[in-house]
Specification:
Blueprint: H1 3-27, H2 29-35, E1 55-59, E2 64-67, H3 81-84, E3 88-91, E4 95-105, E5 111-113, E6 145-153, H4 163-179, E7 189-192, H5 198-206, E8 216-218, E9 224-233, H6 244-254, E10 265-269, H7 282-291, E11 294-297, H8 304-312, E12 314-320, E13 336-341, H9 349-357, E14 361-365, H10 388-395
Parallel strand pairs: 6-7, 6-9, 7-8, 10-11, 10-12, 12-13, 13-14
Antiparallel strand pairs: 1-4, 2-3, 4-5, 4-9
Protein name: Glycosyltransferase 61 catalytic domain-containing protein
GO molecular function, one term: glycosyltransferase activity
InterPro entries: Glyco_transf_61_cat, Glycosyltransferase_61
């Protein structure tokens, strides 16, 4: 057992002990009410008891099983297990839940409680799962603030400052509400976690939500609300399972019209302006890419609409793994993608977009020791030194007309 595994075991044992220690408080109704705690039980929005508890789940997309084409991985002995595990997958059914007299606690991705105090786990994502949920670790919660009328929650894990999670996770949840028949402009309050970054303000405006409106509430971790009616789009347990309807919604949000057929570009998306996951031998990489007709672009400073238009004009995109490659959502049919990875950070998030739209995807892993097969990717800050021979082989597969 590694030191990391030992530490996790100790943390889990401590968490179990704390949950059990406070279970008694939650079990006494008067104490629970005074301390604003949830009950010890959980309630699924799909359970037969949900309607009696004031919960109504509206289905949007049915579950769908697909087989996704694996990426090419030249230079590797086999396709990385993280891709193989995600080859044949089932996109879970999506839904939007409306809960009467609900409570919402803002920690992480938000916790939703039914009017009888039970946790709604499908709408309350926590890295430890529902049994050891963070809400069960607290000896008390703050006094809830009353939100009259109908409230929409768009609080989404990891989306408060990250372009990928905002674009691929949060915006589709707003799309679920719209596709379920809700008017986003008709809510009395909208709960959200964000830093007011330009791409976030632009996204809200595209949704028809005024970022400066008083009805938009920026949620903090310790905020606690009691809502007359709370509407919560479903939350994904696995963020690599973004359904077709979700991707199509975001694409149409920023790219309502198809690009001109004659506009075809090859883009190299640099991370030179980033603090990590940079290409250390980028000068040599650029020389080779330019021989094949690539132009270098930096996405910082561009609006989302501008990024969408640029990617829609591309016949090929290359670059290190980054949130900016979420813009592959806007690429045109036939676009070819060459993504660079550090050995400790091989992840499927941009490949899943390519698989949805049928873009051939090549994953090039940089120099360095490979983690054990099946190990979780942990090298999010690793820089990349790319083998030019591997890049040359990947470029040789591109159509020759644009060199």
């Amino acid at each position: 057992m590694t030191l990391r595994d030992c530490a996790k075991t100790v943390l889990k044992a401590a968490r179990i002990g704390r949950v059990r220690a406070f279970a008694g408080l939650r079990g006494i109704r008067a104490v629970r009410s005074r301390l604003h705690l949830p009950r010890n039980q959980a309630l699924s929005p799909h359970h037969p008891d949900a309607t009696a508890a004031g919960i109504n789940a509206l289905p949007v997309d049915p579950a769908q099983t697909v087989t996704r084409p694996l990426p090419a991985m030249p230079g590797e002995r086999e396709v990385a297990p993280i891709f193989r595990r995600a080859e044949r997958v089932t996109f879970p059914a999506t839904f939007v839940t409306e809960i009467i007299d609900a409570r919402f606690w803002g920690f992480y991705g938000g916790s939703v409680f039914a009017r009888d105090g039970r946790l709604v786990p499908e709408l309350s994502k926590d890295v430890w799962g529902p049994r050891l949920h963070t809400a069960f670790l607290r000896a008390r919660l703050p006094v809830p603030r009353h939100l009259p009328g109908r409230t929409l929650s768009l609080v989404t894990p990891e989306a408060s400052a990250n372009y990928h999670h905002w674009t691929v996770d949060l915006l589709p949840r707003a799309g679920l509400a719209r596709r379920a028949g809700y008017d986003l402009g008709g809510f009395d309050h909208i709960l959200i976690k964000m830093r007011g970054l330009p791409f976030q303000l632009e996204g809200l405006r595209r949704l028809g939500i005024d970022p400066d409106s008083d009805r938009l509430i920026r949620v903090r971790d310790d905020d606690h609300f009691r809502c007359d009616a709370l509407v919560v789009p479903s939350v994904r347990d696995d963020v690599s399972l973004v359904g077709p309807g979700d991707m199509d919604f975001v694409r149409a949000l920023f790219l309502p019209d198809p690009p001109p057929a004659a506009s075809r570009r090859r883009l190299y998306v640099t991370r030179r302006d980033a603090a990590f996951r940079r290409v250390l031998n980028e000068h040599q990489v650029l020389l080779l890419l330019r021989e094949h007709g690539f132009e270098e672009i930096t996405l910082s400073g561009l609006t989302v609409a501008a990024q969408a238009r640029v990617f829609s004009e591309a016949e090929a995109v290359a670059g290190p793994n980054s949130s900016g490659l979420a813009n592959l959502l806007f690429a045109s049919p036939g676009c070819r993608v060459i993504e660079f990875f550090a050995p400790g950070w091989v992840v499927p998030y941009n490949w899943m977009i390519c698989a949805r739209f049928g873009f051939p995807h090549t994953a090039l892993v940089g120099d360095g020791p490979r983690p054990d097969p099946g190990a979780l990717p942990r090298g999010v800050r690793e820089d990349i030194t790319l083998d030019l021979a591997l890049l040359r082989a990947a470029l040789a597969t591109l159509p020759s007309g644009n060199q």
